[in-house]
Amino acid sequence: MDALETFRQEVREWLQANCPESQRQPAVREEQVWAGKNKTFPTDDSKLWFERCRDKGYTVPEWPVEYGGAGLNEAECKVLKDEMKAIRARTPLLDIGIWMLGPAVFEYGTEEQKREHLPKITAGDIRWCQGYSEPGAGSDLASLQTKAEDMGDHYLVNGTKIWTTNGDKSDWIFCLVRTDPNARKQEGISFLLIDMESEGVSVSPIELISGESEFCQTFFDNVKVPKKNLIGEVNTGWSVAKALLKHERKLMSEIGGDTPGPKFGPVQAALEYVGKGADGKLSDAALRDQLVQHEMNFRAIGLAHFRTFEERMTGQTTQLPLIMKYVGTEEQKRKEELLMALLGSQALGWYDDQFSEDELLTARGWAFSKALSIAGGCSEVQLDIIAKRALNMPDLPRAKS
Predict the structure, then answer these.
(1) Distance of alpha carbon 34 from its chain centroid, rounded?
(2) Tens digit of pLDDT for each residue in 308-318?
(3) Domain with CATH 1.20.140.10 in the chain
(4) Sorting pLDDT into bands at 50, 70 and 90, what band is 253?
(5) What's the confidence (pLDDT) of residue 198?
């Protein structure tokens, strides 16, 4: 037995001994464990599962041990992920500090910044939010107005950010700020970490059509930010921002992930809600074609992810990761449309108790999937990136005025 198979056996035994049965179920939004100073645990088992994973370094297993990770290499991380998926183990801790900020700090932060922030992320002590988008800027992240003035021993930040997901629940925010108004648009930006308890920071939730309020607008009014909170060099924050977005898009390209949803997929839903004809097949040929196409696309995307993993393991660099956010999120949207069609009128519930929990989750999943066209970079921007950087296509000629 080689070393990787030995590790797989150790992981299986550890999971069997330490993952409570209640945590081997599809994720439920109300039972997810989010990081934070005031984090709460919906059940005793979720607390136990989190603490065991934290102590083992499995909240962020690929990070070095000295920062709270398990120090696993990429192949070992894949084994752990596969084995957790095999028993449907829930993700023990959620936070964009894990998925987005941490990797950027590893790449651009100083050793002092790594030791200050990374262990708090792995231990779930701090919840992070993202301060990129601004009112009126659309999808152009570089078109930002929030400014940070150099005041000698600190920066003075003024401005506002919008669509700050869970800004009202977060402890810290990472922000793009303009530090040189006279430089070219993408060259006068810096990347700052700001404590949400700083004097002058305020947050206003934005109520959505669903009645929920996941998004916020965040205001900065003469907020003093220590210079030690600058990641990378001043005026080079655009590079940090792009590195961070790369990790966000990788996360979004992994279809479904640990997002709460119904227990069934399209094929299972077809069998339950449409049923088979006398010949043992779905009677609607067009529906069969849709299901087959989805299964083929789903497996092809999974194989593409595996290919990128193998390429990283062998040191190869390709343009494949550039397309994954677009194809992954587009297929996720098609899956949600398919589920809605399969459930028919039973997919139209929102709160009514005549609908099952899975039926209500189907409706919410379909509504949420529309955001995938925008979050992490809109689909049109992704197509532009693919055209320019993956396919080396020329810019479109400018229209004559």
Answers:
(1) 13
(2) 777 766 777 77
(3) 262-391
(4) low
(5) 97
> Under CATH, what is the fold of the domain 262-391?
Butyryl-CoA Dehydrogenase, subunit A; domain 3 (1.20.140)
Cβ contact 222:156 at 8 Å: yes
The Cα–Cα gap between 65 and 70 comes to 5
Rounded distance, CA 121 to CA 119, Å? 5
Residue 158: beta bridge partners?
A: 147
Q: State how far the Cα of 176 lies from the Cα of 287, in Å rounded to an integer.
A: 46
C-alpha to C-alpha distance for 20 and 6, rounded to whole angstroms: 23
Is the pTM here over 0.90, yes or no?
no
Tokens representing residue 220 in the block: 């900065």
Q: What stretch(es) of the chain map to CATH 2.40.110.10?
A: 125-243
Using one digit for the tens of pLDDT, what is the confidence trace for 124-134? 999 999 999 89
25's tokens: 């179920």
| CATH topology classification for 125-243 | Butyryl-CoA Dehydrogenase, subunit A; domain 2 (2.40.110)
